[in-house]
Amino acid sequence: MNKMNKYGYRGRRRVIIDSSIHTLKIEEDSAIMKTAVIGIGNLLYQDEGMGIHAVNALGVRYGFPPECEIIDGGTKGLELLPIIEEQDAIILVDAVDFGKEAGFIKVIADQDIKAYLDLKFSVHQIGIPDMLFAMEFKGIKPPKICLIGIQPPPEEFEMEPRLTPVIAGKLTELVETIVVRLRAWGVKVETRKPEDYSELPMEYRNVSGDPF
Length: 212
Known about the structure:
Layout: E1 16-18, E2 23-25, E3 35-40, H1 50-61, E4 62-63, E5 68-74, H2 81-85, E6 89-95, E7 105-109, H3 128-138, E8 144-150, H4 165-168, H5 171-184, E9 190-191
Parallel strand pairs: 3-5, 3-6, 6-8
Antiparallel strand pairs: 1-2, 4-9, 7-8
Helix pairs in contact: 1-5
């Protein structure tokens, strides 16, 4: 079973970017593409912590190569920039106000992200738009970047670490959306066996405290 480092679970695989066709090829002696999945949010306030719940669930259900980090970004905001700067590919996961029905999941990738720079759509004080502006200002441009957001309910968040039922019910879909993107980038994602879940910390299980 993969060991958990400071930021998450890691394993091993070699990949390279073929810039001519914008795809990833797996090769024996290729350079390693560093990838990070960063969950953003506050676990103390219901669905505001959805990004954190998602990466925790991701770390429980799947194993990853050593060049792929699963990171609890919490409410660190701009403090995450040094981590982002080191990556070749980034997935940001957050509760996002798209103005849609609660539980709506949207994937925004690469050049499409720029269209959202002028929108204050993150539910946090220092949200993803602020991070994207700072990245652009500092010239931090990971070759691949993706935002995966989920629409929270319109009600104000309460100080409660458990997700609301409608959002908790979308957790598996959100996690699988992350996995689909990683695999499309050529990252080897391995499904863990259910019996492995009991060996992991309680906070890295699902929101009810039970294995998936």
